[in-house]
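Board work, copied verbatim: Chromosomal replication initiator protein DnaA
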Amino acid sequence: MSDMHTTYYEFWQETASRIKDTLPEQEFNTWFNRIAYLKSEDKKVILAGASQFILDTVIARYRDLIVNTLSELTGEDINVEFAVISRSEIEQINKPEGNAKEKEEKQEPVQTQAKPKISNEKTLRMKVESNLNPSYDFGNFVIGDNSAFAYNASLAIAKNPGSSYNPCLIYGGVGLGKTHLLNSIGNFIINNTPELKVMYVTAEMFTNEFIESIGSQKTQHFKNKFRKVDVLLIDDIHFLQGKDSTQEELFHTFNNLYESKKQMVFTCDRPISELKNITDRLSSRFERGLNVDLQPPNYETRMAILKKKLIERGSSMSEEILNYIATNVCTNVRDLESSLTKLIAYSELLSQEISFDKAKELLGILPSLAANANQTLSIDTIIKVVGEYFNVSSFEIKGKKKNKSLIQPRQIAMYLSRDITEYSTTEIGTEFGGRDHTTVMHAYDRIESLMKGDEAFANTVQKLKRDLTNVKK
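↓ predict structure ↓
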């Protein structure tokens, strides 16, 4: 190690301080609090992170900024390298120097006492009994602007269940990471506070067990199973729409746990206000606590996800191919992984490197262009039909211009997308140029109001709706 080690450390502190002034506070805290100055050599600074995905994201987003700032401050061409070390080591390095010894003395006995309490084998068994997927944890969730709020809320809940954010609802379209976060909460709690009883179920599992308990006359056993837990995690509550008896049972379970200050976290594919055939009193319970949404990942996050998955698979792929996937697959994480898996499988099975042209050929119509093929009607089709009727282009409807001639067709297209498909407002907003779900909700309410007061306008919307029901994708 060179004599410049201490000096470089001081330069790193100043670098971090300058970067903090240029970034939003949440963004800086999300990434720079998760890396640490490890050591230095001649004209080289080595930073560390607790996982490869953290480092990949920091490298992709901030490496040039870090290198340029360090070089400017030192007057030398500084090379920055990265290494993976444990999370506890990161926390230890980042402790304020004056309090490090005191904190170490306070924390060390707790760690040495707590860890032997439960073996890895027993921890795994507890997770399986709780229906959790042990492979989902906070460490392998790729955080982006689209998911930072939901991630941090989930982590806060996992660290202190039953406190401030109870209940919590995480909502968003398919494949965005809701199930990952829900399982991460449960796994974190079992790892760190194994004395708490955790239960994860999907809404379908909850419904099926309830029906079975009625048939076998074991309803009390069912009630005990779900009302005597410390943490209840229920996935995909939109499945409960129209299931009145199950909603009634969940309502009472909710009240019982809430009054006992037990933590509840739910996920849904849309905001609660958009669910149909859900009782008002149950809906109000879901909305009582913290509601956070997951948006589709932006380009930078999509690239970070792809690179992380490549590392996990021990594979490599050209930046050109990764850019092609990240640019075209804008729907969700699941579609990103599916596209990448297809290319990796081809390369591995045929033992040959994937070229850019071969990648395009294999991927064909990417998920973003397929517009969620499981839907009966695509949003692009709706936009096209409405645009043709009003003599405006699809590009203009999706665009940012707010001309009077565009606002109404755009709102009608949003209204019809919400009315005749199963897409959530979050997904619809994404298809309309990345607009927020509240914009779609406003458009729906606006068109519905106009239809009630203007018969001719209502007839126009109904005609478009009839035309669309006859259109094949």
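The chain has four domains: 5-93, 120-294, 299-370, 379-469.
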